[in-house]
Amino acid sequence: MTRLTRDDLEAARDRLVPDVVADGLRVLFCGINPGLMTAATGHHFARPGNRFWPVLHLSGFTPRRLAPAEQGELLTYGLGITNVVARATARADELTAEEYREGGRLLADKVTRLRPDWLAVVGVTAYRAAFADRGAAVGPQDRVFGTTRVWVLPNPSGLNAHWTAATMAEEYARLRART
């Protein structure tokens, strides 16, 4: 992959990244919003320190570790990716409360239309903000969208030091066992 400059990343600010989705997925993973590396490359969870791809493999969702550029292969495993907020930023704290609420509304509509078995929101803080659920914790939620059940997973960002790749993989595997 070509090394991106600071200018390349800044040029990607506010860029939209297409979802990787199809009707009737087993799990639709939902990030907070695209980071600048993701927006610049067009590949979800593209920042090298992000642990999404390794954890997806360690948890048994994929038979091998996929690279972000291979995100389309997720569909062959009944998996997809979307985001709560579509707008790319350098940090999630650049998003407003209104963006989270509107993102939650749009996400609910998308999930109702696509009917995945599970919506897996990767980040409890994003889930709480998007769905006004201050008491939410990592794990299965009571909320459903149509027939879609919801699971909150730890955020795979390298900034989330509370979770190691191994402990994240255990939580992701708990969801996989239910699919």
UniProtKB/TrEMBL annotation:
E.C. code: 3.2.2.28
Origin superkingdom: Bacteria
Classification via InterPro entries: MUG/TDG, Uracil-DNA_glycosylase-like, Uracil-DNA_glycosylase-like_sf
Keyword DNA damage set for record: yes
Protein name: G/U mismatch-specific DNA glycosylase
Pfam families: UDG (PF03167)
Protein keywords: DNA damage, DNA repair, Glycosidase, Hydrolase
Molecular functions per Gene Ontology: hydrolase activity, acting on glycosyl bonds
SUPFAM superfamilies: Uracil-DNA glycosylase-like
Ranges for domain Uracil-DNA glycosylase-like: 18-173
This protein's encoding gene: mug
GO biological process: one example: DNA repair
NCBIfam families: PRK10201.1
